[in-house]
Amino acid sequence: MDAQLVSQGAQQQVHIRVPPTPPCPLCGGKTRLRKGGKGEFWSCQHYPECKGIINSDTRKRKSPRRAKSAKSKKN
Description:
Elements: H1 2-11, E1 31-36, E2 39-44, E3 53-55
Antiparallel strand pairs: 1-2, 2-3
């Protein structure tokens, strides 16, 4: 029974859709999403020959700083 299922699965076609990526700003090649210390970015797949990058909108954002209160100041 297992061999029959494997045989049936091997005969089926698989269609994988890859979402489009932005083109490299330097060479026009494909890019891939990478994670860095400051968040995600798109990098050229031809790295290190091409060092094209595109910043991603999903970067880590710092929280806004709070204003110091008047009580904490010493005169």
